[in-house]
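Reagents: none. Just compute today. Prostaglandin reductase 1.
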Amino acid sequence: MVKAKSWVMTQHFDGFPKKSDFGLKVEELPEPKDGEVLLEAVFLSVDPYMRLLSKIHMKEGGVMIGEQVAKVIQSKNPAFPVGSHVVSDSGWRTHTLSDGTGLTPILPEWPKDVSLSLALGAIGMPGLTAVYGIEDVLGLKEGETLLVNAAAGAVGSVVGQIAKIKGCKVVGSAGSDAKVVFLKELGFDEVFNYKTVGSLEEALRKASPEGYDCFFENVGGSSSFIVLQQMKNFGRIAVCGSISTYNDSEPQTGPYSFFTVILKQLKMEGFIYSRWQHKNHETLKRLLAWVKEGKLQCREHVTKGFENMPAAFMGMLQGENTGKAVVAV
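Predicted 3D structure written out:
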């Protein structure tokens, strides 16, 4: 019998999450049955979508949702031998019994000197999101100019680097001077701290006077209206996230910029990476190859200890992380 810990949402979040919104539970798990495996979490992910989807897919008292990299410690399923590692949607748990459904084995060619935590970041869901947003939604072409906000986050930092691989000009917006330095080290052409610029409109115009062909949107809110004014005619916008609104108690209303969308004939499309899950295996191999070639740099914000899951989650929502936020058990 294994004692498994899990973090549950004791009550739906009202505004920004609080420590009292989480509770730690302990339960004993039985031995695996035929076809089952027992997983032990190694790394767990904290992501903005958890705040958004908690309102839609979770009930009070339910285990917090999320991905983890886990090690198979007991197995009665030949597809997942003991000692192998998988990516699992097990949520905030230290141990999980699984029948194998939804488990994604770590790529067999994964180098030993590359942390498995990257399977939750650049070589995982955020990396897949970046690729599909750039290629399948935006159709980004060589020589075009791309703007990405929340650029130092798990998705944004990969978006900018892939755009540079494709021969584009990349402008990034981030929330601290340290993040600006980081993004310049990654090769972004122009970066600014949106918290300290006097005018977002002027900062955008200075970074790219000719305007923007593509916009990878992670933030939402009123700043998006300002960006739309500086899109080129026939510009494309990939709406990946709206983190600035996730903690609002009341839904934001306006400003509405349909007139700008009409005049500039813009294309705006929301997307979720799972639409292209049939391509995940090959896309993950591409991302891993870029990492091995040194074309894709990965930075992580690692919090140690399963007991610190809520703190890591709240810190990520406040922008404390540069790169992917993960928890190491």
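The chain has nine helices and 15 strands.
Action item: order primers for follow-up constructs.
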